[in-house]
Amino acid sequence: MKIKAENLAATVEKALSDYVDDVNDVVKQEIKDAGKEAVKELKEKSPKRRGKYAKGWRSTVQKETAVGAEVVVHNKIYGLTHLLEKGHAKRGGGRVEGIPHIAPVEEEITGKLSDEIEKELKS
Prior knowledge:
Blueprint: H1 8-45, H2 52-55, E1 57-64, E2 69-75, H3 78-86, E3 87-89, E4 95-97, H4 102-122
Antiparallel strand pairs: 1-2, 3-4
Helix pairs in contact: 1-4
């Protein structure tokens, strides 16, 4: 492919623009996939004493921009997440220990996310 000198800047700019668009698409998709994977992991690792809490995990795309996406992972029973993760006081005195299940999944997924983005960009 031959490029004339006067068209070099435009050709390079187009190639870089195409690359940036491809990278942004990969990043958005990987973020959405990470949200879905987090939901799957949380459904498996959440306390299942009553059942509804573990089944209530959802991921929602909060905001999608030209350079990325913001995905929120939440539970339908929103007030229970903090109590189960951190523990709480009992009615008659004493304390219930927390069951850490959100923080480990968050660390695992955020660690995998950058690896997955790198892997997709190399291929």
